[in-house]
């Protein structure tokens, strides 16, 4: 049972990162309700193991728990080894690699450029969602959560070299998906 | 065009280039990476891909916000943690938000 002080500290640590926790869960799981379930389960786990938390990097700690719960949920769903809900596999990135993609324009006040920006946003998010899970999580953690390579390695439990390779693969695959979408 | 069968040297340089753009590379290493890139078309292309994709994702990817119901659930889960009328400076440790 947690005391008042523990309980207060838990909330002070978790609440500032709730949006990040939810956003990561959304990017890993896809749907709204499953992301909420993942975050709820992650928070319960975090509360259970709060006494083991050393207090060094609360954000990475919380994101790691969210990530682990998301993987466990996906694994349960598929009743087998994690074969994430990917539309692409990593080898696709190596085939027919093209670096042709339109430059992302800075949207100005002009309606046409605003429309173009909305299309770019939509295409980009669709392409990001298509990346393999292990690639997508590295890219999302790096670009949206501003995690360093070292933090991502800690959260995903892989070497830093693997993190850098996955981020590179993710960027390459995104460029190709966006170029394909333009055609 | 980035060849799928790029040389191991270029592959290594591209990963270092990426680390440079992401602010993860030491200045001393950045010099040798820039020197290689100056003479390598493939690495120059990769440099552009990395920069554009980095900007695009940071600018356009959706950052989802937690639904109010989830926030309320968390607050309800640890009711004693809610700072009710206490001096906020006393109530919570300040943790840095991500930029």
How would you summarize this macromolecular structure in one to three sentences?
The complex is a heterodimer of chains A (183) and B (99). With 183 residues, chain A is mostly helical. Chain A folds into two domains: 4-78, RNA polymerase sigma factor, region 2, helix turn helix motif (Rna Polymerase Sigma Factor, Chain: A, Orthogonal Bundle); 90-182, Winged helix-like DNA-binding domain superfamily/Winged helix DNA-binding domain (Arc Repressor Mutant, subunit A, Orthogonal Bundle).
Average residue-wise pLDDT of chain B = 80
Find the CATH superfamily of the largest domain in chain A: Winged helix-like DNA-binding domain superfamily/Winged helix DNA-binding domain
Give the number of domains of chain A.
2
Largest sheet of chain B: none
Output the radius of gyration of chain A: 18 Å
Helices and strands of chain B: which structural class?
Answer: mainly alpha
Order of helices and strands of chain B: HHHHH
CATH topology-level name of the largest domain in chain A: Arc Repressor Mutant, subunit A
- How many beta-strand segments of chain A? 0
Low-confidence stretches of chain A at least 5 residues in length (pLDDT < 50)? 85-103
Please report which band the strand proportion of chain A falls in: under 5%, 5-15%, 15-25%, 25-35%, 35-45% or over 45%: under 5%
Cα end-to-end separation of chain B: 34 Å
Describe this entry's structure for a reader.
- The complex is a heterodimer of chains A (183) and B (99).
- In chain A, helix 2 packs across helix 3, helix 3 crosses helix 4 and helix 6 packs across helix 8.
- The longest helix of chain A has 23 residues, at 160-182.
- Chain A has helices spanning 4-14, 18-29, 32-48, 58-78, 111-130, 133-143, 149-156, 160-182.
- Chain A contains eight helices and no strands.
- The termini of chain A are far apart.
- Chain A folds into two domains: 4-78, Rna Polymerase Sigma Factor, Chain: A (Orthogonal Bundle), CATH 1.10.1740.10; 90-182, Orthogonal Bundle (Arc Repressor Mutant, subunit A).
- With 183 residues, chain A is mainly alpha-helical.
- With 99 residues, chain B is mostly helical.
- Chain B has a domain at 8-60.
- Chain B is 61% helix and 0% strand.
- Chain B contains five helices and no strands.
- Chain B is elongated.
- At the A-B interface, helix 1, helix 2, helix 3, helix 5 and helix 6 of A face helix 1, helix 3 and helix 4 of B.
């Amino acid at each position: 049972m947690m005391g008042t002080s523990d309980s207060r500290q838990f909330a002070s640590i978790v609440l500032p990162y709730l949006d990040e926790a939810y956003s990561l869960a959304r990017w890993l799981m896809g749907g709204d309700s499953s992301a909420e379930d993942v975050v709820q389960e992650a928070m319960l786990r975090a509360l259970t193991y709060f006494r083991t938390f050393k207090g060094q990097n609360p954000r990475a700690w919380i994101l790691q728990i969210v990530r682990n719960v998301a993987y466990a949920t996906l694994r349960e769903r598929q009743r087998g080894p994690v074969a994430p809900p990917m539309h692409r596999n990593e080898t696709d990135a190596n085939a027919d690699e093209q670096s042709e993609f339109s430059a992302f324009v800075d949207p100005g006040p002009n309606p046409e450029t605003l429309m173009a920006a909305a299309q770019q946003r939509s295409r980009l998010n669709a392409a990001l969602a298509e990346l393999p899970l292990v690639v997508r999580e590295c890219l999302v953690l790096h670009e949206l959560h501003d995690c360093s390579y070292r933090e991502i390695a800690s959260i995903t439990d892989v070497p830093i070299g693997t993190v850098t390779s996955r981020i590179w693969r993710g960027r390459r695959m995104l460029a190709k998906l966006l170029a394909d979408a333009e055609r | 065009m980035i060849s799928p069968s790029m040389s191991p040297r270029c592959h290594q340089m591209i990963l270092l280039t990426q680390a440079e753009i992401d602010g993860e590379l030491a200045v001393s290493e950045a010099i040798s990476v820039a020197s290689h890139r100056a003479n390598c078309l493939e690495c120059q292309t990769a440099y552009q891909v990395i920069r554009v994709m980095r900007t695009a994702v940071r600018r356009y990817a959706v950052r989802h916000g937690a639904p109010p119901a989830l926030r309320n659930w968390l607050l309800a889960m640890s009711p004693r943690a809610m700072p009710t009328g206490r001096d906020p400076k006393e109530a919570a440790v300040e943790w840095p938000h991500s930029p």
